[in-house]
Design brief:
Strand order of the largest sheet: 4-1-5-6-7-8-9
Strand content: 15-25%
Structural class: alpha/beta
Distance between the termini: 39 Å
Order of helices and strands: EEEHEHHEHEHEHEEEE
Number of strands: 11
Number of helices: 6
Radius of gyration: 17 Å
Shape: globular
C-alpha cells in the first residue's frame, strides 16, 4: 500500500477583507492553498497517497487534526505569515498526538525566514515543487538531510544545518498542474463578498 502524505493548511489569524456591494458589509475572502496542491501533484505522480486539509476554510478542531493524521506516514504543514502562530501550535499538537510522526514545514513564511521551525523534522526554505519527492523519500527512508536541496534542520546537538544549494525551476511549463480536486468538496471558499465552493487561485505572469 502506498505511503500516505498529509498536507495541512492551518487557519489564518488575519483575513482579507473587502466591501460586499450587496450587503455593504465586510466579508472574508478564502481561496484554496495552491502551494500544497502543486506538491500533491508531484507526490501523487511519484506513487504516494496524498490528502490535503484546509483548516482556514473548513474550520479547525483538535479532533479534526487527530483524524487527519491518524494513519499518515508524513505530514507537511504550509506556513504563511498570516498563519504562523497557528501553524507552530499545530505542529506542537501533532508532536503530542503522534510523537514519532515526521513533520515537514514549508511555505512562504519559511522562504522569508529560512530557519528551522520549532518541532518540525526539517524545514523547506525554497519553492518545493521540484524537490518535494526527493525530500519525502529521504525523510521516510532515513537518508541524510544535509544532501537535500533547499532545507534547514537541527542535528542531534541542536546545531542549525543547511542542505545543499537549491536551483530554482526555470521552465514553469514543466510543473504539473495543481490537484485542485483534492479540495473540491470544501464549501468554505469565497471571493470577497461572495461565498461559493467554485473558487480557486491562479498564478499569472
Amino acid at each position: 500500500m502506498p505511503q500516505k502524505i498529509v498536507f495541512l493548511f492551518p487557519p489564518c489569524r488575519v483575513k482579507v477583507f473587502g466591501s460586499n456591494e450587496e450587503a455593504a458589509k465586510p466579508e472574508k475572502a478564502v481561496a484554496p492553498p495552491l502551494g500544497i496542491l502543486y506538491l500533491a501533484a508531484e507526490l501523487l505522480s511519484a506513487g504516494y497517497q496524498v490528502e490535503c486539509f484546509d483548516y482556514n476554510a473548513e474550520g479547525y478542531s483538535e479532533e479534526r487534526l487527530r483524524h487527519a493524521i491518524a494513519d499518515a506516514d508524513l505530514v507537511g504543514v504550509s506556513i504563511l505569515s498570516f498563519n504562523r502562530e497557528s501553524a507552530y501550535a499545530m505542529i506542537g499538537r501533532i508532536r503530542q498526538m503522534r510523537p514519532g510522526l515526521p513533520v515537514i514545514a514549508g511555505g512562504a513564511d519559511c522562504i522569508l525566514h529560512p530557519h528551522p521551525v520549532p518541532g518540525a523534522t526539517l524545514t523547506v526554505t525554497e519553492e518545493a515543487e521540484t524537490i518535494i519527492v526527493e525530500i519525502v523519500n529521504a525523510v521516510l527512508n532515513g537518508l541524510p538531510y544535509e544532501h537535500l536541496p533547499g532545507v534547514v534542520f537541527r542535528n542531534g546537538l541542536g546545531e542549525c544545518i543547511r542542505g545543499r544549494p537549491f536551483t530554482p525551476v526555470r521552465d514553469l511549463d514543466s510543473l504539473r498542474f495543481p490537484r485542485r480536486d483534492l479540495l473540491r468538496d470544501n464549501k468554505g471558499y469565497s471571493i470577497i463578498g461572495k461565498r461559493s465552493r467554485n473558487v480557486t487561485t491562479m498564478i499569472t505572469s
